[in-house]
Amino acid sequence: MRTLAVPARRDVSDPTTAQGGRSFQELGCAACHLPELRTGPSDVPALNNQAIRPYTDLLLHDMGPALADRRPDGLATGSEWRTAPLWGIGLTETVNDHTRFLHDGRARNLEEAILWHDGEAAPAMERFRALPRDKREGLLAFLRSL
Ligand code: HEC
Q: CB under 8 Å to 20, separation ≥6 — which residues?
């Protein structure tokens, strides 16, 4: 189980997807959904000091009152959530037969998941809202390629 690979990305060379990847950086999504992390030392060679692309910083962020469940959990206050990893997210429907996102599944699709971002993520969400339709679609195509 530990060495099962994540799914390979799809449609990477598609121009719309590539444009969406640039928007992902420009809007500030990548500040929390970090494209690259490095694993630490491991006695399993395949896991030892590897570059991985999980699209998370693995950190807690205050996501504002609308996403808060007001139930502190460990180190997290009632409005903090760990950045959800985005690798494999484009295969959610294929694998899980649904497209519900966020910690309680309230978002019916990827676009709704972005629009619920608030608190520390409000500036990035506002920049997404201000994008013209075709660039929004590009960003969603990029997410579907992960
Ligand atoms: C301040 C940090 C931060 C920024 C900036 C941010 N996110 Fe997130 N994102 C999160 C956190 C934390 C969650 C988990 C929230 C939850 O589960 O309620 C999340 C969840 C998501 C999800 C749902 C994942 C899932 O599996 O349910 C998507 C999609 C997503 N973010 C995309 C984006 C995009 C696109 C942007 C840029 C417009 C962005 N995020 C900017 C922190 C951030």
A: 135, 137, 138, 139, 140, 141, 142, 143, 145
